[in-house]
Specification:
It is built from one helix and no strands. It is mainly α.
């Protein structure tokens, strides 16, 4: 027997401050492996950012290439 999902009323509450930058963080409360993964990710992001800045300083393009553009005559959805 299938049960139908019905609409329900919900209460809307105004917030007095933004959620972004909230002081409490789950990052410090997690297991050591998650902290290690987070720290490793942050170090990787810093390396990528510094490599990108160095490439810009040397006026080198990062991952740019010429591509051919083909006009399509029909939509892709439902293509056979």
């Amino acid at each position: 027997e299938e049960k139908a999902l019905a609409d329900s009323d919900v209460a809307i509450t105004n917030q007095t401050k933004e959620w972004a930058g909230a002081e409490d963080s789950d990052e410090d409360d997690g297991p050591p492996i998650e902290r290690h993964a987070s720290e490793t990710f942050e170090r990787r992001e810093q390396r990528l950012a510094s490599a990108s800045a160095a490439a810009v300083d040397e006026e080198k393009a990062l991952a740019d290439s010429d591509v051919a553009i083909t006009n399509q005559t029909k939509e892709w959805a439902g293509a056979e």
